């Protein structure tokens, strides 16, 4: 009877997983894909809106004639969706109060959506949320882990996870620690066959085995060249300041102030620096499309390259002609620049092509201005 009960529990948990394909995709504002690095992962992979666990093993493309098998996987994964940071929470609160108290006294602003913002928009973010992972962010990493386990069953197997042959490194940032925990939960759920987001742990809490390594994961904090030359350098972001106070932003500021019924001088450039946060308000009230820069045709768009849960995967294969390496960006194959003839070139060719980077970048010399003797870089 106990075995039957366990089987029924697992079967019941699988039903929601099987029904994902029939779910309708909700209406999403067309500006959702233009939130830069704060864009959700589904804007890059829209099919995940219907089935967040759908994986595609065909992305692995070693030469079929060489009978290759993946033997090692290195993944660099960004944290999942998070709350705004403290400075933006304060900006949201300030803008909310500004609209509530001053928009009604300004000219214009009779539209129903503006009345709703004035009367019903609740600035519900609290300061303790400061950049922390939201539940959607945990799901981002759990689901990614499940998909990768489906694509790499021999590497991310239950045995390898249980025997801790899979190594996890994270920085001490709470959103990163929460993300690596969620990723491990996803692997453990996958190994148990509990693939639904609705499942619960039956008898025990998930086991975590990650290491916190800020020296590696936040190396820039210890790089004096970066701290002094960029982070604490007022001239380093001069072009950003020019843009914030330039003609394009001034036009956006004027149009937004007019739509909100605010005096122009009250809507400062500083209050316009968090457009990604506004549509997430609990009231589901989003500002209408005020202005979008002309992004069509741009090749470098951070919203498509590094959304939440962005990932960079290096897959090493054992092949007849020798080891081969394949690159995946956000679960899609990308060919190495300079080696575009193959999806998975020979490992020795990759090292030869990028030797000037692998062996030519001295961290201590770049960061501290001093050379330190070291062996050749063998991390790749």
Automatic annotation (TrEMBL):
PANTHER family: MULTIPLE INOSITOL POLYPHOSPHATE PHOSPHATASE 1, MULTIPLE INOSITOL POLYPHOSPHATE PHOSPHATASE-RELATED. GO terms for molecular function: acid phosphatase activity; inositol phosphate phosphatase activity. The keyword Membrane does not apply. It comes from the Eukaryota. Gene3D superfamilies: Phosphoglycerate mutase-like (3.40.50.1240). Residues 1-21 form the signal peptide. It comes from Neolamprologus brichardi (Fairy cichlid). Keywords: Hydrolase, Signal. It holds the Pfam family His_Phos_2. This is Multiple inositol-polyphosphate phosphatase 1b. InterPro entries: His_Pase_clade-2, His_PPase_superfam.
């Amino acid at each position: 009877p106990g075995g039957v009960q366990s089987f029924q529990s697992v079967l019941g948990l699988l039903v929601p997983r099987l029904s994902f394909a029939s779910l309708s995709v909700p209406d999403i504002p067309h500006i959702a894909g233009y939130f830069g690095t704060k864009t959700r992962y589904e804007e890059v992979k829209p099919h995940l809106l219907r089935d967040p666990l759908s994986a595609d093993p065909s992305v692995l493309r070693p030469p079929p004639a060489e009978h290759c098998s993946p033997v090692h996987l290195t993944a660099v994964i960004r944290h999942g969706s998070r709350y705004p940071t403290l400075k933006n929470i304060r900006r949201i609160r300030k803008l909310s109060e500004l609209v509530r108290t001053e928009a009604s006294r300004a000219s214009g602003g009779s539209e129903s959506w503006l009345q709703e913002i004035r009367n019903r928009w609740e600035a519900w973010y609290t300061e303790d949320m400061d950049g922390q992972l939201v539940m959607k962010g945990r799901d981002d990493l759990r689901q990614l882990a499940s998909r990768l386990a489906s694509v790499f069953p021999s590497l991310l197997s239950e045995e390898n996870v249980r025997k801790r042959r899979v190594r996890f490194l994270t920085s001490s940032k709470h959103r990163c620690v929460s993300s690596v925990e969620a990723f491990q939960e996803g692997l453990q759920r996958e190994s148990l066959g509990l693939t639904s987001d609705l499942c619960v742990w039956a008898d025990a809490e998930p086991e975590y085995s990650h290491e916190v390594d800020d020296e590696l994961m936040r190396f820039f904090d210890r790089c004096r060249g970066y701290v002094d030359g960029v982070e604490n350098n007022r001239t380093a972001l001069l072009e950003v300041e020019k843009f914030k106070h330039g003609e394009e932003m001034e036009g956006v500021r004027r149009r937004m102030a007019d739509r909100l019924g605010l005096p122009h001088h009250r809507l400062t450039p500083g209050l316009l620096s968090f457009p990604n946060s506004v549509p997430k308000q609990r009231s589901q009230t989003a500002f209408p499309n005020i202005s979008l820069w002309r992004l069509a045709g741009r090749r470098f768009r951070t919203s498509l390259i590094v959304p939440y849960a962005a990932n960079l995967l290096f897959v090493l294969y054992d092949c007849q002609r020798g080891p081969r390496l394949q690159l995946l960006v956000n679960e899609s194959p990308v060919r190495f620049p300079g080696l575009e003839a193959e999806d998975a070139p020979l490992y020795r060719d990759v090292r030869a092509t990028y030797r000037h980077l692998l062996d030519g970048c001295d961290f201590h010399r770049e960061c501290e201005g001093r050379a330190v003797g070291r062996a050749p870089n063998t991390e790749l």
